[in-house]
Amino acid sequence: ENITVNLLDSNGDTVATTQTLADGSYLFADVTPGDYTIVQENSPNFVDVTDAEGANDSQIALTVGIGETVVAQNFVDEVPASIAGNVSRDDDNDGDGERNLENITVNLLDSNGDTVATTQTLADGSYLFADVTPGDYTIVQENDPNFVDVRDVQGANDSQITLTVGIGESVTERNFVDEVPASISGKVSRDDDNDNVGDRNLVGITVNLLNRNGDTVATTVTSANGNYLFEDVTPGDYTIVQENRPNFVDVRDVQGANDSQIDLTVGIGESVVAQNFIDEVPASIAGNVSRDDDNDGTGDRNLVGITVNLLDSNGDTIATTQTLANGNYLFTDVTPGDYTIVQENDPNFVDVTDVQGANDSRIELSVGIGESLT
User: Fold this and answer.
1) Which 3 state secondary structure label does DSSP give 131?
2) Helices marked H in 145-245 — which ranges?
3) What is the DSSP letter of 307?
């Protein structure tokens, strides 16, 4: 009731004005035939939904003939909704915004994925979509080129929030938090001369980035120069895991270990570099333990289940195995270097000889890259 409706002629001049009655109807009588536009003035708290022409522009164009009664020139309005929120930056990696971000573009998409409104954040980081027709929407925030998503009110870091807006509803605190991303880079190379230094770059090596829960969040492969790079990394704790090529084993990495992984913490906007891995073609060591039954210094029967240890140059045991039914033992994936093989005698046996001639249950040897000592 009491909605003002104007009748404009073909020149855009208002020739009549009326107001709706209690039943919402309006009437222009004694209309001279011709071309007109009916313009409805919205109540302050209302917006257009549709009219007889289908649009929501508060106006209907029509032609009236001599003596013609034109009816059902109807308008439909509703109380509009609104959507508001904030975009801020996380400066201490706690997932909360510490500083507001101005001039960040925020788009409002309808249920079809079409953009129906676009705005930008103000100096206080706030944005507002007013006069929103109730329905289903997605808010999409466009990141500043130097920023990546941290989280939003739905918990994800995908720069979008889905929501349903009711008639006259004011939806607030649809907030986004961003931050300056970090990066992690390094190299994978091979050691060709057993000095623990990479001599040739390895291309096509898979490198994975795992978060603190052990979940893989990114995967890449090394380029022709052996380099790998993880961009747009959210600051936090990570483990870099390098997948070895089938014929290679680890030599070392920037943390000194040869376990194919590097643990690190990445700060906001930090570029962590030189997270390098060095691999090499492994060696192997094999032999046999047997018993001498006729005191000629030659083995006559193989001994099964005899423990054989491999000691590094510091005298530390780095591998242990036992002889098989054929008396053989094998150490695979041996990093080239200096070693001692120590055989543990069965309680009822003593040493007779070994390939070095002594009867001290040990053999000293040096293993080259990719060498198989038998």
Assistant:
1) strand
2) none
3) E
> Helix (H, G, I), strand (E, B), or coil: what is residue 351?
coil
Which tens digits make up the pLDDT trace of 181-237?
A: 889 999 999 998 878 899 999 999 999 999 999 999 999 999 999 999 998 888 889
Separation between Cα atoms, residue 272 and residue 183, nearest integer Å: 6
Taking the C-alpha atoms of residue 113 and residue 242, their distance in angstroms, rounded to an integer, is 40
Q: Are strands 182-190 and 271-272 parallel, antiparallel or unpaired?
A: parallel
Does residue 161 register a pLDDT over 90?
Answer: yes
CA 360, CA 287: separation in Å to the nearest integer?
16
Helix extents (H) in the chain = none
Please give the Cα distance from 239 to 241 (Å, whole number).
Answer: 6
Residue 302: HSE in the Cβ half-sphere, 13 Å Cα cutoff: 12
* C-alpha 48 chain-centroid distance: 42
Tokens of 371: 């060498």
Query: What is the total residue count of the chain?
Result: 374
